[in-house]
Amino acid sequence: GQGVDEPLSATGFRQADAAGSFLSNVKFTHVFSSDLLRAKQTAAAILGKNRFCKDMEIKYDARLRERKYGVAEGRPLADLKAMAKDAGEQCPSFTPSGGETLDEVRERARDFFEFLCQLAVELEQKEHGKPGAPGRSSGTSGEQFFFPWTNHYSEAETSSVGSGSSTVLDANILVVSHGAYMRNWIGYFVSDLNCTLPENLTKSQLSSVSPNTGVSNFIIKLENGYLLKPKITCVCLNQDSHL
Question: Which residues does UniProt assign to the signal peptide (predicted)?
């Protein structure tokens, strides 16, 4: 949760370093992190391994914090499950006293995602507004923007990002957050924004919490700067092959 702001354990630091090595050849344009210590340390470890972004500023945002669990924070997961059982509810949807509801968490995710979309549109507008400015793809290697699991792309995905001026993305954003929060964010993508999912993804995988330093990759297309209907493709979800 939010109330116990513990640092990473020794295992956590090793996992963060492994994620950094895995993403070391990916050139990010922006990095955002939850302002909780464990996320800050994870983001710093990832950038520390990166070939292109070692000195990039990490922007911390409270909207990326883990779900608030109220009276259950700092206690074993078994206690949360017992509280849910006593209330006659299932654990994932149960809200302990003083905690956030799933709708409140999703609202935070929606607000942050709309902020990212606005950021990307403003970047694109600024780039095209420069007199005589070359296209984004001019003289730049688009390969720096592709992730290590490019073999996971379907033909439709590669055709949409792998040719012409769209080879280089307007923004390639790393977001470091927390398991329960990200599960709600992905739920928002799927149920509200009709995110396209990998064909082999099961319902249990979609509803599961990411492993520590699990990586998910989404391609967001905003046609003509239209913020209300982004086209979202999930390339992979909760990838943990680096662990």
Answer: none
| Nearest of 125, 150, 215 to residue 177 by alpha carbon | 215
66 is in an annotated binding site: yes
- Residues 127, 241: Cα–Cα separation, whole Å: 36
Q: Is 108 known to sit in a ligand binding site?
A: no
Task: For residue 138, name the pLDDT band (cuts at 50, 70, 90).
Answer: very low
Closest CA to 189 of 124, 122, 118, 117: 117
Q: HEC states along 156-201?
A: HHHHHHCCHHHHCCCCCEEEECCHHHHHHHHHHHHHHHCCECCCCC
Asked whether the predicted pLDDT for residue 7 surpasses 90, the reply is yes
Q: Which CATH architecture has domain 10-125+170-239?
A: 3-Layer(aba) Sandwich (3.40)
Q: What distance in Å separates the CA atoms of residue 132 and residue 201, rounded to the nearest whole number?
A: 45
Report whether 67 belongs to an annotated binding site.
Answer: yes
Is 75 known as a binding-site position? no
> Is residue 68 marked as binding?
yes
Domain ranges of the chain: 10-125+170-239
